[in-house]
Amino acid sequence: MAALARLIAPDAFGLMAIALVVVGFVEIFAQVGIGPSVVHKADLTPVHLRSAFVFSLTLGVVFFAAMWLAAPWIGQFYDRSELVEVLRVISLSFILSGAAVVPRSLLVKQMRFKQLFMSAVVAMLLGNWVLGLGLAWAGYGVWAYVAALLGQNTILGICYWLFSPVPVGWRWEGAALREMLGYGSRSTLFNVTNYAASKVDTLIVGRWGAGWTATGFYDRSVYLMGLPVTVLGKLSDSVLFSGLSALQADREKMRMTTTAAARLMSLAVFPGAVILVACAQDITVLFLGAAYLPAVPLVQILFLSVPARGLIKLGDAIVRATDTLRAALGVKVAYLIAIAASTGGGLAAGFGLEFVAWGIVAATWLQAAALVTLASRSTAMTWRAWWHALRPAFGTAFLTAGAVGLFLFLMHAFGESGALLRLVGSVVVAVGTAGGWVWRRRKDWLHLPS
Predict the structure, then answer these.
(1) Burial label, 313 (beta-carbon count in 10 A; 0-12, 13-18, 19+)
(2) Distance between CA atoms of 246 and 262, rounded to whole angstroms?
(3) CB–CB of 48/176 below 8 Å?
(4) Count of Cβ atoms closer than 10 Å to residue 136 Cβ
(5) What is the DSSP string of 385-403?
(6) Other CB atoms within 10 A of residue 428 CB
(7) Which end of the chain is less enclosed by CB atoms within 10 A, N or C?
(8) CA 378 to each of CA 157, 186, 250, 252, 381: distance values in angstroms, whole numbers, following the listed order
(9) Rounded Cα gap, residues 59 and 180, in angstroms
């Protein structure tokens, strides 16, 4: 992405941002919660797997055809004719995902993360680096991004099947499919609302913002904010969801695991967010290039939501593993309404994109508090237990802020230096101070249940 940002214009990123939001939203329906059902269900049989595969692949084909027909209307809504062909080509991902969702979910359920890692590395190297960057260098613009996406998804699907083949056929068993779709439908509603809440601001900015270049700036700001959250998302969607699903009958072990996960996650994320906020300009220049300097204020504001998003990811894993999705759906709907209202209202009033960013930060922290409350009921954790789990992270974050702030002040006092040196120096200072403090307290803070 850092290389693409230097080879593809911000206008193209704005176009691709809208296309990915639309396709990503539809793709949730195209899978109808089949993947989470495979991970969550305790007594899977070959009949369940075959039915899930046939059904998910059929839905992929159906939704590909539907997007092909709907693309002209979406392009007309955004007044961008290029969006039509981009949407039609990217919608091939519905078929690719439909074919790969069952073998991937089996790998997650069996916690075979070595194979998942190997698949991701191969897909990234061949799809993103070779195909995507090669076409971008050749001047294909937004189509390089499209090719990278489809190439990566194709290679991932092939790897999943090589590592975890599943029974195939031409028909599904109704009874087995209904068992999976019960949980799957609840998971789908939860995921749809969650995804809509995370993307509605981009859709509104793209339609009523200050043009496609501004949309590109905003989209890349959200992308930078989402980088650490994406890592946490992989942790919660795969490791925690799978592990907690296996422990759902033992609430005491689930409570102990949640406490350990909250402490470890916060010790990494809270101090890390301090570095992100302090070095927002350097991170923007390094990852996106100098052309994106106007996005620095947005990036800095959005980085303030990273700790809350870490807590949200943990809460999402808990409510999915304990199947308290109905209550969590209410939290997600309230968050969606808050984001849409603050974004649309702020732009309509002429407050600009920075106001939109502050609204997202406030709504994100409120959502985190609501999900922690809901997760507490599922795991029998008290607020006092949450405070003891998170207290070391708050102390470490304050220590990091002081050390990094002093370091950057001295760097500025003795003359400007490169963005890479400032960022690397800040990380080294943070690890040397806050990391050393954590290491000295490791017997108390890092004690984990077996």
Answers:
(1) buried
(2) 18
(3) yes
(4) 23
(5) HHHHHHHHHHHHHHHHHHH
(6) 12
(7) C
(8) 34, 17, 11, 11, 8
(9) 15
Q: How far apart are CA 392 and CA 372, in angstroms?
A: 17
Helices (H), 209-324: 212-234, 241-246, 251-278, 280-288, 296-303, 306-321
Question: Is the pLDDT reported for residue 447 higher than 70?
Answer: no
Q: Does 37 score more than 70 pLDDT?
A: yes
CA-CA distances (angstroms) from residue 123 to 6, 155, 397? 22, 5, 35
- Residue type present at position 303: F
Residue 118 pLDDT:
94
Residues 75-87: b if buried by 16+ CB within 10 A, e if exposed: beebebeebbebb
Length of the chain in terms of residues written: 450
Q: What are phi and psi of 418, to 5 degrees?
A: -70, 155
SS3 state at 43: coil
Pair 339, 396: CB distance under 8 Å: no
CA distances for 73 relative to 81, 283, 382, angstroms: 10, 37, 50
Both tokens of 398, joined, read: 């304050």
Distance of CA 410 to the CA centre of its chain: 35
**Residue 334: pLDDT band by 50, 70, 90 thresholds?**
very high
pTM of the model: 0.72
- State the pLDDT confidence band at 338, using cuts at 50, 70 and 90: very high
How far is CA 183 from its chain centroid? 22
